[in-house]
Amino acid sequence: MTRLPVVVILGRPNVGKSTLVNRIVRHKAAVVDEQAGVTRDRRELSADWSGRDFTVVDTGGWEFRPGEKLTADIREQAEIAVAGADLVVFVTDGTAAITDDDVGVARILQQSGIPYLFVANKVDGPAMEFDLAHLWSLGLGEPMPISALHGRNTGDLLDRLVEALPDLGEAVADNVIASLAIIGRPNVGKSTLLNRLAGEERVLVSDVPGTTRDPINFVVELDGEPFEVIDTAGIKRRTKITDDVERYAVMRARSVLNQADVALLMIDGTRGATHQEQRLAEEIVSAGVGLILVLNKWDIRDEEERLHTEDSVADRLAFVDWAPILRVSAQTGSRLVRLPAAVRTVLENRRRRIATPELNRLIRAWQEAHPPPVRKNKRPHILYAVQAETEPPTFILFVRGGDLGPDYLRFIERRMRETYDFTGTPVRVRVRKRHGRET
Predict the structure, then answer these.
(1) What is the C-alpha R_g of the chain?
(2) CA-based nearest residue to 284, from 269, 267, 264
(3) Residue 217, H or E segment
(4) Phi, psi angles (nearest 5°) of residue 361
(5) 274 exposed, middle or buried (CB, 10 Å; 0-12, 13-18, 19+)?
């Protein structure tokens, strides 16, 4: 399959790169904030213009003299992205003086030999275009004035962008592949796991909690099968969300669950399952997503910590005891070889379908052996059942008489799980009331 051209958006912090990315992909895909350095990883997104498909890469701000380890890592990520680019869009702030960071990016582009477009952002009107003469000193030619925020000249920029894209041949439509969302509290090793699966440093790994703010996604091969893997910002309790950037990152992480097939819920093996993991598991089940519990940092030698973690999982996550548990070390890769088989099992079970005659024979047998309890002087009776959907398996019970309580619905779910392999997937059991005499 021919790959799509890769367009990297590059520039120093806070020049509007993520705003431009959102404009190009035509939806709010990247976190945007006045605070510099909000984008920390390079993130790949699909885009198209005038019939040309391409991949756009949003990068963290490049800094010439990084002042701390995390900022140095951001610079390295940006440089790696440039090395894999077919075209670079160099974004500067048209309203500000040239900085050493701008000069540093310009030198990288001149030395790389990669085609580029030179953009002056935040130019909101024609009058401001007369103040761009200072940008010529970067030696990159005439900057194209745009306003990513207001969309000014961005259509012209995209016209020039697709004209400059290399011809890589006719792209073949991708097959639909499964999506794996890596979910968890901040700093439990989500990005380390993603980098381990990718086989390269695709995402920043730092001891600073909250390093990842945007969901980061790309395709990896597990045992020869492609999967889209999504790393999300650590999800915190609302009382722990300190600013708008974190709040938006949490919203984006939760929205990922609506697109994922399987969630890898990561739990710190040195701390065990907390109330937060309990809430996350509830959200995953509510979204109907497959679930695998990943106990990370299992290379710890403290047997007491291991026992505490397993006890906490059994206690707080008893309601998802159908989820497979993997004990791994994302840092060393220990036991990760078991992940592909676990994912395939969950995906297969999410797609499981039970024939209607067989399902109704089972429901009748269960109902005769354990009739639903009487509620408000009425005993409900299940007339028949159908499987309405897969992914996740969803069953509709048509009922006459009284109400089936949640306890009986759980009983039906338990019987289904005992009869069929629904490991790793939620099972939904819904009720439809029938009124009047059945003929």
Answers:
(1) 26
(2) 264
(3) strand 216-222
(4) -60, -40
(5) middle
In Å, what is the CA distance from 129 to each residue of 19, 119, 146, 164, 213? 20, 12, 9, 24, 34
SS3 243: coil
Q: How far apart are the first and last CA of the chain?
A: 57
Coil, strand, or helix at residue 373?
coil
Q: For 84-110, what is each residue's pLDDT tens digit?
A: 678 999 999 999 998 887 888 788 778
Contact yes or no for 188/13 (Cβ under 8 A): no
Cα–Cα distance, 362 to 313 (Å, whole number): 32
Q: Which residues pair with 227 in a beta bridge?
A: 220
Note whether 17 and 66 are within 8 A (CB). no
Contact 181, 289 (CB under 8 A): yes
Name the pLDDT band for 76 (thresholds 50, 70, 90): low
Q: Is 361 helix (H, G, I), strand (E, B) or coil?
A: helix
Tokens (6 digits) for 209 = 């909690």
Q: Which residues contact 403 (CB under 8 A, 6 or more apart)?
A: 375, 376, 378, 380, 431
Q: Please check whether residue 432 is in contact with residue 400, taking contact to mean a CB–CB distance below 8 angstroms.
A: no
Instruction: Round to whole Å and give the CA distance between 341 and 327.
Output: 14
Alpha-carbon distance of 301 to 307, in angstroms, equals 11
Query: 100 vs 273, which has greater pLDDT?
Result: 273
Q: What is the average per-residue pLDDT within 421-428?
A: 96
Q: DSSP secondary-structure letter at 33?
A: -
% helix, strand, coil for the chain, step of 5? 35, 25, 40
Q: Output the CA torsion sign for 324, 330, 335, 336.
A: positive
Q: How big is the CA angle at 425 (ends 421 and 426), to the nearest 5 degrees? A: 115
Residue type at 133? A
Nearest to 76 by CA among 86, 88, 61, 90: 61
> What is the rounded distance in angstroms from the CA atom of residue 349 to the CA atom of residue 337?
20
Residue among 317, 239, 236 nearest 272 (CA): 317
Using the 8-state DSSP alphabet, how is residue 203 labeled?
S
Confidence of residue 152 (pLDDT cuts 50, 70, 90): very high
pTM: 0.60
Those residues with Cβ within 8 angstroms of residue 406's Cβ, 6 or more apart along the chain or in another chain: none
Strand-pairing partners, residue 46, are: 55
- Domains contained in the chain, CATH given: 6-164 (3.40.50.300), 179-350 (3.40.50.300), 356-434 (3.30.300.20)
